[in-house]
Amino acid sequence: MTGKNETAYEQLKDRLATMSDLGSTRILLFWDQATYMPRGAVAGRAEQVATLSRLSHEMLVDEATARLLDCVGEPDLSSEEGALVRRVRRDYERAVKIPADLVARTSRVTAMAEAAWARACKESDWSFFAPHLAEVISLKREATEFGDTRIIPTKPS
User: Fold this and answer.
1) What is the mean pLDDT of the chain?
2) Rounded CA separation 75/83 (Å)
3) For residue 78, how far is the Cα from the chain centroid?
4) Structural domain boundaries, residue 88
5) What domain count does the chain have?
């Protein structure tokens, strides 16, 4: 990489580190929700998670990310840098199609669904979870209209 490319690559890595921190914080909030948080605080937590998801998404799809990807160019595809740039470019190209509002709504609904799932399991009553699952499915279908064909390969804890 040339000097200009290296600088852009370092700036891109810094940006990714911030997005990673936002994601780690979101995961920590989910952990707290599952372990210590009172049931009545779920709506507030869902808003916090939605905000973090929206901010991370907005950072990824921001014009600054696109400029950095352009400046980095095409590093050696067999290198660590090349693998990272390929991954970020793929994530950017997918994410730029999805509205930030949809990302936030999906995170909000998922946080509410996680809490409903825990309650449904504890009380052996599917009716607590069913409406939340319907909302998650609806949002995932909406996302496919924007080209998001990923399926989250996790199950509620």
Assistant:
1) 90
2) 9
3) 27
4) 3-145
5) 1
